[in-house]
Design brief:
This is Phage holin family protein. InterPro entries: Phage_holin_4_2. Pfam families: Phage_holin_4_2. It comes from Fictibacillus norfolkensis. This protein is mainly alpha-helical. Helices cover about 80% and strands about 5% of the residues. The protein is built from 6 helices and 2 strands, in the order αβααααβα. It has a two-stranded antiparallel sheet with strand order 1-2. Helix 1 packs across helix 2, helix 1 crosses helix 6 and helix 5 packs across helix 6. The model has no long low-confidence stretch (mean pLDDT about 95).
Length: about 120
């Protein structure tokens, strides 16, 4: 359970960072980013496996790069459900944001969260 909260926090930070750098990616406030992170997390758990299964031939043919398109589609769906508190101007921005959010999640998980977990296990 704690891992899920840490993942939500990292995803919220990544969303806020992308919103800070791009005008075409707008999040109203931190609570909207947290809600978007929860929605995105739920989509990744329940909807993403189905989308991967349905697009498996394309995903294999593209050597997995189509997963970025799936991530961008889920990010766009999240923005649509959030209404005016979370806006993405176009699918191209969603693609770029999906790549940056994935990289930020990987960086924050590997270089911040994992060392904290290892330190906590030692103590």
């Amino acid at each position: 359970m704690m891992s899920w909260f840490a993942s939500l926090l990292i995803n919220t930070i990544a969303l806020m960072v992308v919103a800070g750098y791009f005008d075409a990616f707008h999040i109203e406030n931190i609570s909207a980013a947290l809600l978007a992170s929860v929605l995105l997390s739920l989509f990744n758990v329940f909807l993403k496996p189905l989308l991967i299964l349905l697009t498996l031939p394309v995903t294999i043919f593209s050597l997995g790069l189509f997963l970025i398109v799936i991530n961008a589609a889920l990010l766009s769906l999240t923005a649509e459900l959030m209404g005016s508190s979370f806006n993405i101007d176009g699918f191209g921005m969603a693609l770029l944001a999906a790549v940056i959010i994935s990289l930020l999640n990987m960086f924050l998980t590997n270089f911040v969260l994992e060392p904290l977990r290892k330190k906590r296990k030692r103590n």
